[in-house]
Amino acid sequence: MKRKMAMIFSLLLCAITLSGCWSKKELTDLAFVIAVGIDKTEDGKYMMIFQVVNPGNVAGATQRGGGSGGVPVSIYKATGDNVVEASRKASNKLSRLIYYAHTNLVVISEEIAKEGVDGLLDALERNSQFRTTAMVVIARHHSAEDVLKILTPIDKISANQIIKTLQFSEKVWGQTLNVRVGDVIHDLDSAGKAPIISGVEIVGAVKKGKRQTNVQASEPDARLNINGIAMFKNGKLVGWVFGETARGVLWVMDKIEQTSITVEWKRKKEAVAYKVVRAKTSVAAHMKNGKPSISIRIKAEGDIGESLVPIDFTNPMQIFALEKKIEQTIKNEVVHAVGKAKKEKTDVFGFGNAVYRSYPREWKKMKHVWDESIFPQLEVNVTVDAFVRRTELRTKPYIFGQ
């Protein structure tokens, strides 16, 4: 009898403590949002753009090849006085529940970025489904809606193409940066570093890029291009850097993995291509007579990728002279990047954090005036050590024989 009572008690206890499937959600009831775009309407309201995947069409496009199937994504829009309201109002247009667990990309219009991104990211971070590992980009010259509507030929879902392009561009070129929502939130909360976000733009005919014919041609009418780095101050976009200056920002932040640098040789511009295969940057803060300064040391190793002039790579003196030119080229990129940030009075490099780590007491006195007074006048010393490790399959260019 006691044994039966114990079993009954155990069953009752399990029934009370185990919740079962009370929170279950059927796949057919969910709208999987791959990317979110945020624009501003003419009357000043927020517009949320949801890129929702069409699973059947994505699978069908893979099986049939090309763009013979239906479009892989659908776009839904909703407006509201804030991001949460716009997200809720989207339920009037969707027959499924909006599901953010697979959202990997956030596209913010340049207009909203200039007004400030603090409130937008706060709403996303508080959402229990949303992951702060999602990447964030700024739509340049076009709306976030236009960016998310462009159909891409290789990656069927345009959000995936933007994400992969960001990842590979940062790895092999070094003029754009893969930034996550969590990174931006962390920088917004830091007094010693301002956020930076890469930009995405549309190249070509925007209207044609939204049609399925865009993925059926060998040369699409519109493409998505990752270009530029947006610099923020107090949560607002204040300026852009491009090309070598953008790469200078990444040099300082120790984000360069691989890149290619062209240097002048004997008055011929872009004469030699130097492929960086390994790089390391260290930043240190110093204090003298109550005045801070920053020292940046960059070490780069690479190979000769191309030579358009006759250089004897068996001659150590010529190798040494070439290394000096490479060092000066890298230093110039860093100096230009620092100068641009100083002009905008925004410390996107984290120099303030470096001062805080080394001199926490002094930092407390200067952090409130860092961007406006101290950073623009900050002494920054740059040292570069570049090494040519290999010349690939040639020691003497065939130009010697001409």
From TrEMBL:
Residues 1-24 form the signal peptide. The keyword Hydrolase does not apply. It comes from the Bacteria. Residues 227-391 form the Spore germination GerAC-like C-terminal domain. GO terms for cellular component: membrane. The keyword Lipoprotein applies. Pfam families: Spore_GerAC (PF05504), Spore_GerAC_N (PF25198). It is a lipid-anchor. InterPro entries: GerAC_N, Spore_GerAC-like, Spore_GerAC-like_C, Spore_GerAC_C_sf. One of its GO terms (biological process) is spore germination. Its main location: membrane. It is found in: Membrane. Keywords: Germination, Lipoprotein, Membrane, Palmitate, Signal. Residues 24-201 form the Spore germination protein N-terminal domain. Belongs to the GerABKC lipoprotein family. This is Spore germination protein KC.
